[in-house]
Amino acid sequence: MIEVIRVSAVAFLNTVPYIYGFDQIEKSDRFHIGMDTPSVCAHKLQDGKVDLGLAPVVVRDQLTEFHEVTDWGIGCDGAVGSVLMVSQKPIEDVDLVYLDPQSRTSNQLARIILEDHFQLNPTIALPGAQERVNFAAEAAYVLIGDRALAAHAAFPYIYDLGYLWKEMTGFPFVFARWVGSNLITDRTERDLSLGFELGMSAIPQLAERYQPLYGKVQVLDYLSNQIKYDLRDERFFAGQQAFLNRISLSETLTEKY
Predict the structure, then answer these.
(1) CA 241 to chain CA centroid, nearest Å
(2) Worst-scoring range by mean pLDDT, 1-10, 100-109, 122-131, 208-217?
(3) What is the Cα 192 distance to its own chain's centre?
(4) pTM of the model
């Protein structure tokens, strides 16, 4: 009997190569994949409801029963395109920033950018409040994933948080890494690595398939250049540690946003 491996992936365009990769693995039906937001993925991992998932880096240290699986994840080395702060006026003129209810990692990154790069201290609205407003002109908004990709055409002021992090620190940024429970054996990890490599090789075909769904978004460039999947380079570890160190230095950033 095949042992089922419960997986929490992320329901954004940037995980399409991974989903394709799962289908290429021998006995792929053992993987039962749920498509979630990053915050839901984090909760499922913390609650032991899945065996494998894309763990947001802000919760990685809390997942003591999990180990990192493969060298793959979601990162960027400069502009990422899908993790943004957007507004109708310059960020220096904004007094209120709404966080994104789907991602604590991106929210923490936005707050670091506001404090360290722009040296601003606007009022921060907690996740959930964003869903009750209609993009008011006086506020800025943290957006992630497909909603951020669509926002490029809707707002005059677009602040790419991956770009600003790289400009500020010189490091790439890591949003999430694959982690697994003890159910993920060395053999399964090798299968996953092979499947993910096949997913990366298929990006040109996947981009062609998904381009009609994303309008003016340049899907091939986004998947090939803006999103970084292979996180083996030591610079990604250095960038991840710089981010976590910065959070630990601030009482406000350690709040669970």
Answers:
(1) 16
(2) 122-131
(3) 19
(4) 0.93
Q: Would you list the domain boundaries of the chain?
A: 5-75+174-233, 83-169
Is 18:201 a contact under the CB 8 Å cutoff? Answer: no
Q: What proportions of the chain, in percent to the nearest 5, are helix, strand and coil?
A: 45, 25, 30
Residues 6 or more apart whose CB falls under 8 angstroms from that of 216 comprise 152, 153
Chain CA centroid to CA 229, Å:
11
- What CATH number was assigned to the domain covering residues 83-169? 3.40.190.10
Matching CATH topology for 5-75+174-233 and 83-169? yes
What are residue 174's DSSP bridge partners?
Answer: 75
Would you state the pLDDT for residue 257? 44
Query: In sequence order, which residues have a C-beta less than 8 Å from that of residue 73 and are 6 or more positions away?
Result: 54, 174, 175, 176, 177, 178, 229, 231
Check whether 255 has a pLDDT greater than 70.
no
The interaxial angle of helices 16-24 and 203-210, nearest 10 deg, is 120
CATH of domain 5-75+174-233: 3.40.190.10
Alpha-carbon gap, residue 159 to 30, rounded angstroms: 41
